[in-house]
Amino acid sequence: MSRKLTVVLLAMLVLVGAMGLKTVVVAHSDGAVIMANGGAPQPPTPFPPTFAKNGGAPQPPTPFPPTQLK
Amino acid sequence: MLGPYEYAIWLLCTILEAGVLVCAFRKNALRRYLLLNVYMAASVVISVARFDILRHYGFTSNEYLYFYYYSDSLLTIALYFALASLYSHIFSELKADYYIRLGTLFLLSATALFSYAVVQQSTSKLVTHFVLELSQNLYFVGLVMTYVLWAAILKMRETRTRLIQLVLSMGVYFSLFAANFAVQNLYHSRSPFFEMLTPLFGCFLPFSWCYAFWKLPEDARITPSRLAVVPR
Fold it and tell me: What is the per-residue pLDDT across A41-52, written as a single tens digit (0 to 9) for each?
């Protein structure tokens, strides 16, 4: 049982470390997505930052920030 | 708009990926490193499918966009399992297969749960959000797992050259993309230099695996002291 718990603990540590590393790497990110499989050209992300489409008035901050993709 | 450079790198990368399968087959390593070869085979198939969709619908089409990101998520999961299979090779003498499988599945489930927790507030396109988030998170989990594996190799004084080459190449591959991405974000740079450099990194992994399968025999050994100085 203790071996299984050790495996679970190690897995949790890896996950915490990975998410910490991700936070560091994607700091200052503008919403770009890291893609690392194959040489195919990367299309734009499906969820670009919110942008105003109607009129020329300056855009206020969004009241409900979209979920961070990074 | 895509130019000849992008197509050339894409073609080169796909040829190298197919080359890994050929090298593994010729050197009788196809079954021994099955999950690594499954990942490379999936990369070739998806690369061809991506090209077909790109040719039919165009680079900016929704079809290419969604196929690209969904297939990338599948490839990341395949790469994750390929990395887990390297753990099985390294710890084969400890008879720890069961615990490695348990840890691999638990970590994958935990990453999926975490990703869902991050995107659950999305009101639209929840599945697409989840797929992207999972792909990203699994990529960083793979990066950390590779470093943990490298530490285990040093600690256990692993001597199998081909295995060491496969693990090291994976570590360099993950690190190259992460470092490149971090530098671009840090300087908010989308310069043509980075746009030319990033696809080149994609060729590194198949190239180094080709080398590992073709040049390094399975019974080749290397002394750990030549890899790094480990304090006793």
Answer: 777 776 654 433
- Domain total of chain B: 1
Q: Flag whether B123 is in a domain.
A: yes
Within-domain flag for B137: yes
> What's the pLDDT tens digit per position in B22-55?
999 999 889 999 999 999 999 999 999 999 999 9
Burial of B20 (0-12, 13-18, 19+ CB in 10 A): buried
Predicted TM-score (pTM) of this structure: 0.86
**Chain A residues close to B106, C-beta within 8 Å:** 7-8, 11
Domain containing B44 equals 4-226
Between chains, do A7 and B177 touch, taking CB under 8 Å as contact?
Answer: no
Q: Do B128 and A40 touch (CB under 8 A)?
A: no
Let me know if residue B232 belongs to a domain.
Answer: no
Give the A-side interface with B, CB within 8 Å.
3-4, 7-8, 10-12, 14-15, 17-19, 21-22, 24-30, 32-47, 66-70
Is B141 within a domain?
yes
**Cα–Cα distance list, B109 to B34, B72, B114, B166 (Å):** 23, 18, 9, 25
Classified as helix, coil or strand, A30 is: coil
Residue B220: CB partners within 8 Å, gap ≥ 6? B160, B161, B162
Shortest CA distance from B135: residue in chain A: A35
